[in-house]
Amino acid sequence: MPPTSPSAPRPQAAAPVAALASGMGAIWHPTSVTFRVWAPHAAAAAVVGPFNDWNPQAHPLQAEGQGYWAGAVPALPAGTEYKFWLRTAAGQELLRHDPYARQVTHSNGNSVVYDPAFDWGDDAFQMPPWNELVIYELHVGTFHAPDPERPGTFLDVIDKLPYLRELGINCIEVMPATEFPGARSWGYNPAHPFALETDYGGPTAFKQLVQAAHAQGLAVVLDVVYNHFGPGDLDLWQFDGWHENEGGGIYFYNDWRAETPWGHNRPDYGRDEVRRYIRDNALMWLEEFRVDGLRADAIAHVRNVDGSTDPARDLPEGWSLMRWINEEIRQRMPWKITIAEDLLGNEYITRAPEDQGQGFASQWDAAFVNPVRAALTAPHDADRSMPAVAAAVQQTYNGDAFQRVIYTESHDEVANGKARVPEEIMPGDAAHWFPKKRATLGAALVFTAPGIPMLFQGQEFLEDGHWSDDQPLRWERAAQHPGLVQLYRDLIALRRNQHGHTRGLLGQHTDVFHVNDHDKVLAFLRRHDGGPGDTTLVVCNFADRTHPAYTLGLPSGGSWHVRFNSDWQGYDQDFGNFASLATTAAEGVYDDQPFHASFGLGPYSVLIVSQDPA
After folding, report:
1. Smallest Cα–Cα separation from 458: which of 139, 224, 184?
2. I want to staple 583 with a disulfide (CB 3.0 to 4.6 A). Which of 78, 439, 597, 606 is the partner?
3. Distance between CA 290 and CA 611 in Å, rounded?
4. How far is the CA of 444 from the CAs of 312, 333, 495, in angstroms?
5. How far apart are CA 389 and CA 448, in angstroms?
């Protein structure tokens, strides 16, 4: 079973140390700073810095038992630089960053004593219900970078929060923001898992971002990396000098289980102290930094050496670690969301721990993005599979529509040899009619299919090419494509039922009742409780063909109103403005529905249709 003891170890019959605070790392107090480090193979330990001329004799740490060392330094101001000095049994002297450091000067510099106090003001933010979430994935360094000579910062992100709020976004997902080597990175190479990236502004600036997001009505989900640490500037590597098989030492597996796609640097999920280190990290973001959720990167590589389904390569201790963290979060903060990137279609990832699951609230869904992107980017209409798209729409995990996050663009889908959807459709000419029409077709499907919808930064204003961590978003494109931005705004408003007549898009129930693979038309119904103002019809045309009167079955009689037509010329002057008007359903079975009606349907277009509330 995972450990359940507090983060700080209990002293084990060692010499008493006065005035020590609980916790790990540097625990700041106005009168003194407690320093505590886990180094079980060290023969001696000390804290050093400019306050003692880096002299390990000045402030030695005392052994507490179980490999922990602790001591206190009086009257040490926040902002003081420090490191841990360790001496091995063989006499080797090591200078190490604090594994729990909240702040560093840079990835290869010094740790910094951090005062966690922050005036959160009247922040009483309430996490939106998960069926109402609309996520916007962003990368701090490129989302808004006014100075092209440096990456964007947390404070630069704040400048664009009103834009996101007006777009209708209510949750930002921040790609990994912990300290990494250099100034530019995707963030999936964490050198210091507890420290916020210096070039982004550090820990206080991140708290300011969370506070500002909450003030705008935006939740913050942080991307965390627990499948590996490093590999660069990694002081955790052979931290106290001990290792086996040229492995990473106390924080890592030292055998075949260490192998990852990013090096031999997988944490040892079976060692209590490492489990606690990762668990403390997850809780820190949710409690001290007040983020509203976590997105756990590539957890298939936490539960399996190869990230595969081969049971011979499973890491059961990795599985139990993720379950333990989710159990802790659910017990302490059940309104906060945890999202897994697993991408293997495993429903146990989002099944409750008491039902043998890992306990994540939702997971990125490859079963949506892969077939949908294939249908959007296929050069020929005949190659677009409506049965495959229908299966992607109907997919759920454990019967819950919102246990998956759906998207057509993410950081992975627009890099690593891939590109933005419009770029994939017509390389070098993403602003052509075909890319615009099919990219917006995909977006409409994201906002109407069951799942938590997600955009990747710039998707709404037709950002093209592929994404890179050194290429900032071109915000001038939002002004160049105001109609497309309005299209996304309208879709989000319907998805969130802001007009009161598409409540079905918030519901659990989906009925894909019309799959026409000959004409490449798909239609489905979304319901919450059902009835006028609730039941919502979605019609998707995946072909370059118009239909003046396309007949579909409907569940009830009366007037049905077109709430959204993606072919409206107001969204783009190149669009055809193909008319699709309100209609009255006629009695008579069609598509196994008791009523039917006909709608005008433009090429590569989507209609969202519903009835007025009773």
Report:
1. 139
2. 597
3. 40
4. 41, 33, 10
5. 13
Say how far apart CA 297 and CA 303 lie, in whole Å: 12
pLDDT on residue 19 = 75
CB atoms within 10 A of CB 104: 27
Q: Which residues of 504-536 are buried (b: 16+ CB within 10 A; e: fewer)?
A: bbbbbebbbbbbbbeebbbbbbbbbeeebbbbb
Q: Write out pLDDT tens, residues 354-364.
A: 999 999 999 99
Q: Pairing relation of β-strands 583-590 and 558-565?
A: antiparallel
Residues 6+ apart with CB under 8 A from 244: 254, 255
Determine the distance from the C-alpha atom of residue 601 to the mean position of all C-alpha atoms in its chain, rounded to a whole number: 35
The DSSP output letter for 260 is: B
pLDDT on residue 428 = 96
Amino acid at 578: F
Please give the torsion angle defined by the CA atoms of residues 145, 148, 153 and 158, in that order, rounded to the nearest 10 degrees: -30
Burial class (CB in 10 A: 0-12, 13-18, 19+), 31: exposed
**What is d(CA 78, CA 81) in angstroms, rounded to the nearest whole number?**
9
Residues 328, 294 contacting (CB under 8 angstroms) = no
Looking up tokens 């693979």 gives 517
pLDDT of residue 148: 87
Positions in the chain whose pLDDT score sits under 70 = 1-18
Following CA atoms 19, 21, 22, 28 in sequence, which dihedral angle do they give, to the nearest 10 degrees?
A: -160
Tokens of 509: 């129930």
Are β-strands 171-174 and 135-138 bridged in parallel, bridged antiparallel, or unpaired? parallel
In this prediction, residue 111 carries a pLDDT of 98
* Phi, psi for residue 263 in degrees, rounded to 5: 125, -175
Per-residue DSSP letters for 71-98? EEEETPPTT-EEEEEEEETT--EEEE--
Q: What is the pLDDT of residue 16?
A: 44
For residue 33, what is the enclosing H or E element? strand 32-38
Q: What is the DSSP string of 123-149?
A: ----PPPGGG--EEEE-HHHHS-SSTT
Q: Tell me if 541 sits within 8 A of 521, measured CB to CB.
A: yes
Beta bridge partners of 51: none
* pLDDT recorded at residue 6: 32
